[in-house]
Amino acid sequence: MTLKAQSAQTTETLTNQTDNLVQSSAQLSYTRAFMLVLKRDLTIAMRHKDDIINPLLFFVIVITLFPLGIGPEAQTLSRIAPGIIWVAALLATLLSLDRLFKSDHLDGSLEQMLLSPHPIFLLVLAKIFAHWLITGLPLILMAPLLAVLLHLDENSYGALVFTLLLGTPVLSLLGAVGVALTVGIKKGGVLLSLLVLPLYIPVLIFATSAIDTAALGLPYSGQLAIIAALFFGSLSLAPFAVGAALKVSTN
Amino acid sequence: MNTLLTHSPTPLISGEKLTCIREERLLFDELSLEINAGDIVQVEGPNGSGKTSLLRILSGLSQPYDGQVKYKSQTISRCREEFQQNLLYFGHLSGVKGEMTAEENLKFNLALHGNNTDDTLAYLAKVNLLGFEDSLASHLSAGQHRRIALARLYQSDAPIWILDEPFTAIDKQGVASLEQLFLQHVKRGGCVILTTHQDLISIKPEQVKKITLDYSS
Fold it and tell me: Within a domain: residue A15?
């Protein structure tokens, strides 16, 4: 009996050991690498709150200044509200893009990421997702409140949130390609806007058009579908483009 | 973990006819080298002679103008993942984040390269940073930044170490313990490729192979 029990125990320890081995090799797993970089970027952002506050503050200031400049007539404001909110969101994202790879490039951690055994697109995707959580998500949460200031038509609130939800990730993804290309240049700010803004225009056009259509009480699923297509297109292609661009930039 | 490659006839890492051109200047031309397990290779040369460029080309960060780098007779672009699992590159920049603590930095660096992150405190102790593990790296000195990055060496099981000026901003005692670590590493069957302007103290000259770059134009 005792012998049997012992052998059972040894097999148990053996399986435990193999479990450990599997675990240690699983350290190269995709999800783990993704979460690792995501957690790191969020930690850094939390300790360096400027990154979160600056774009959001810019967004709020621009939108609150418009009623002061144009006048408080509800009709004019509600006419231009979709455009103002979206242009402000777009510029706020552009303002925040620089931080995406710049500091990592300056202190050498970007090199280390490129040399890690993980696929680059995965690490890049984690960084872009962190960027969206830091800049895109707060914008989406603030936008409906600011829309009240601009007398946005009440039918349009759903469209506003949906377009931002699908559109801001596109801004982060496409922006990342531009940042990756210009990260090696000392003063790449102007070049970055020139590269990235034309790519943002389709999102802007379809998003504002969706919000306008919603105000008329018409279905806006067509425009949403196009933004969704832009989202999935950039989600699947941008990380590879960013990876290649980073390799060129650090060469 | 400590069983690295045994001595094998194929070189661990080799460069074939590497040519590097920077800012329209030829730094080196048709440079071929073979580095075996157990080698300590010191790349020498005056400032601007292309030492860093050579190390970056060997690590795959930069592309040579001509020629190719091979890892165990396979071109490194063909076996990127395998090569990078077996490579530890330490550049001019330490890759340490000021917003994170010493321990968090080390943990991230280890996990990024697929290493075990259990005994980080022990490795920080080895580079004399015990007591600083919870300090933000931005509050630490330049030398301590380098030490955080170098702590990775104590845990790494990658056979190829490419170290660009590892002794910069490190005190004498630190240099001595790093040299001991290099000797242990080559004994385990790894190789160390490094640049430094200092003379190695405890590593004897006959143990070091030297590559001298002297560009003349």
Answer: no
Report how far residue B58's alpha carbon sits from residue B90's, in angstroms, rounded to the nearest whole number: 12
User: What are the angstrom distances between the C-alpha of A128 and each of A37, A41, A172?
Assistant: 10, 10, 6
Q: Residue B178 and residue B168: Cα distance in Å, rounded?
A: 12
Cα distances from B81 to residues A5, A116, A120, B8, B114, in angstroms, run 44, 8, 10, 21, 12
Size of interface A-B (CB pairs under 8 A): 77
CB within 8 Å: B60 and A109: no
Put simply, the answer to whether A115 touches B61 (Cβ < 8 Å) is yes
Decide if A16 is inside a domain. no
On whether both B82 and B186 belong to a single domain, the answer is: yes
Same domain, B97 and B17: no
B50 shares a domain with B10? yes
Helix or strand or coil: residue B90?
A: strand
B109 → closest Cβ in A32, A47, A112: A112
Cβ of B138 under 8 Å from any chain A Cβ? Answer: no
Residue entry with tokens 């040579």: B64
* Residue ranges of chain B with per-residue pLDDT less than 50: 1-7
Strand order in the sheet with B160-164: B87-90, B160-164, B191-195, B40-44, B208-212
Same domain flag for B116 and B181: no
Q: Which two tokens stand for residue A213?
A: 């259509």
- ipTM of the complex model: 0.87
Give A125-155 pLDDT, tens digit per residue.
999 999 999 999 999 999 999 999 999 999 9
Query: Is A242 within 8 Å of A249 (Cβ atoms)?
Result: no
The domain tally of chain B equals: 2
Do both B44 and B127 map to the same domain? no
CA distance A147 to A154: 10
Q: Clarify whether residues B130 and B59 are in a common domain.
A: no
Query: A118 and B112 in contact by Cβ < 8 A?
Result: yes
* pTM exceeds 0.80 for this model: yes
The CATH number assigned to the domain holding B163 equals: 3.40.50.300
